[in-house]
């Protein structure tokens, strides 16, 4: 999927550049990354690095927040590029967010990243002036309950579109994922610890990745395994209360040398709390242990030079595999952990109220 994403973005490079240029050349413009659930976390992974790359104001605002409070989440007189992430393009909030932006904002553009060419969002914005729809490769529209390739494909496409990821990043990223999948048993062994709770931690872009990781486990186990996420520094400020002797802690280690120090500090502290068997460092530094006695290490080989939001797309496979193995261990079907429909693949039961 990722290789095809790169090829698709390259094929539309000129069109993307022409669409984005007016927004990137305006110092006062605002870029809002929006989506619901997993799609919202895609924006959180991307936002800070995209802001640093473009020198523009970039914010991740979930559609669930934007739709509920549009008068405060949208700034009427600020020119805004709304970047919408939507696997199906059918979620009520995804559709309402773009409509509210048109209603509230004086000047707005829409970049839509979706995996469903037949979705309403793609239909609303395809060929529309001021909008550009970037479709993900066929097959990325996950048929299973949880978003996996759709999440990583839309995130990678955004990183490539705005120049945070470079075309030559994609092959080592894909190779690292293939290598990790070949070592699937190494990751599934974590689920064999039968953790009652799992904590995912990360800093910067990897905090957004931690949030997505926790959601995957919660979804795939139908809530029977409690999952928590936080930043590496923020965890001590109350959320650490979630720890029990049966907790598994997974820390994504930043490739930034300064940020990495804080991630390693919490790894060391957690090893003291839980023991080395229940602390896992997911590391892009070619799988070398961060320090003796620092717990388990799952290495993403060949990604030590990639920016955090890029290598993290291979790192999140750790959480996806843990979620799948945990689901199976509980006797559930990972593709459909809610057979009676309490939670749905495309959200239901949302009433969109008109904005006066």
TrEMBL record:
Keywords: Repeat. Signal peptide: none annotated. Coiled coil: none annotated. GO terms for cellular component: plasma membrane. Residues 20-170, 186-337 form the SIS domain. GO terms for biological process: carbohydrate derivative metabolic process; phosphoenolpyruvate-dependent sugar phosphotransferase system. InterPro entries: GatZ_KbaZ_carbometab, GlmS/AgaS_SIS, SIS_dom, SIS_dom_sf. One of its GO terms (molecular function) is carbohydrate derivative binding. Pfam families: SIS. This is SIS domain-containing protein. It comes from Auraticoccus cholistanensis.
